[in-house]
Amino acid sequence: MFRLVCVHCGAEYSQDEIIYRCKKCDHLLTVKYDLDSIGIDKKEMDKRPLRLWKYKELLPVTREPISLQEGGTPLYHLKALGEELGLKHLYAKHEGMNPSGSFKDRGMTVGVSMALQLGKRTVACASTGNTSASLSVYAAKAGIPAVVLLPAGKVALGKVAQALMHGARVIAIRGNFDKALEMVHELCVTDGIYLLNSVNPYRLEGQKTIGYEAVDQLGCVPDRFVLPVGNAGNISAVYKGLLEFKELGWTDSMPKMTAVQAEGAAPVVSAIKNNLDVLVPELNPETVATAIRIGAPVNAEKALTAIRKTNGHALSVTDDEILAMQRDLARKEGIGVEPASAASVAGIRKMAEQGLLDADEKIVCVVTGHLLKDPETVIKQCAPPTEIDATIDALRAVLR
Ligand SMILES: *Cc1c(COP(=O)(O)O)cnc(C)c1O
Ligand SMILES: [Zn+2]
Predict the structure, then answer these.
(1) Strand pairing partners for 180?
(2) Same structural domain for residues 310 and 357?
(3) 7/97 same-domain check
(4) Which of 39, 176, 342, 380 has the highest local Cβ count within 10 Å?
(5) 80 in a domain, yes or no?
(6) Beta bridge partners of 259
(7) What is the C-alpha to C-alpha distance for residues 91 and 36, in angstroms, rounded to an integer?
(8) pTM score
């Protein structure tokens, strides 16, 4: 049993209503459960394998879910990087290990299941890339059509390849992500298509399980949770989920929610710094980390609450810092991520260098998407393969 509740005015809507924002004040909606009657204790839950649907009592889906076995992603101890930074308990949750290679699958297994539960037969989204890849995958699994809008020329190659191969109707608009979202929102409202951007509160329900899993894997609540922030849905989702665990009495603390943005697209960082409640959009967001190249984060209101209520932090990193961390994760830890994903750990490096972290802090960085999502940015950073004649002498010579 759940209701949709406006985060601003508290207006409530029933679970059969198809609605993305509050009808009274246009603010964001969130899913509220009757936690007293969820009917399972944590010990029972912990007998199930670690993956997203382990937590089904805390998710809104009542039908058979459209699932490809998302979640259960590895939580790696970053030993080499932790030593370098003087942090003993530095971890990365590798969301690139989801079915389509990013955490968006958590939102989409729930979101597409909800589309069917609500009787919808076509789904759509605007995307910087991963949302479209994931929606295409889950729409394919559900056997329903998907429409995806991308900013032309600004989407990493692997993500476009996925959206095309899995059979979505892929449309590139001559404009940025924020414009694409505005257009798809209007299309969905007027044409009865189901919108699966992160303004959709059910997407965030799926994504909150990153927090659940990290707590279960660590055996405790980390002191700090660090996420790259674009539309700010994921950081809001993890905060909401961990608050539910606490309200259930399953945990007794909250991590400091820490947002890392790219310098050229950092409106959340400015809002925290300047103590604003309403953020000033960045009209021309620019960064190599295309997944967080967003000027007007849809979930800003929720994210600001998450950061402030947990005494968290918001900071920006440069493109060079992001790419340096992408290489370090790859070469010192064996973890291959796309640029946006490296932002979380790059942010931790910056905070450690500024003396803002405690050596004993348990820190979970979410690394959000797989290296292969953006092969072009990888190739640009690396020397090409050394080509030689096919003789053993040539091989020895080149290795000498
Ligand atoms: C979507 C995405 C993000 C940003 O998440 P938000 O919820 O929009 O803040 C970060 N990294 C990757 C790889 C993504 O796909
Ligand atoms: Zn409202």
Answers:
(1) none
(2) yes
(3) no
(4) 342
(5) yes
(6) 227, 314
(7) 32
(8) 0.97
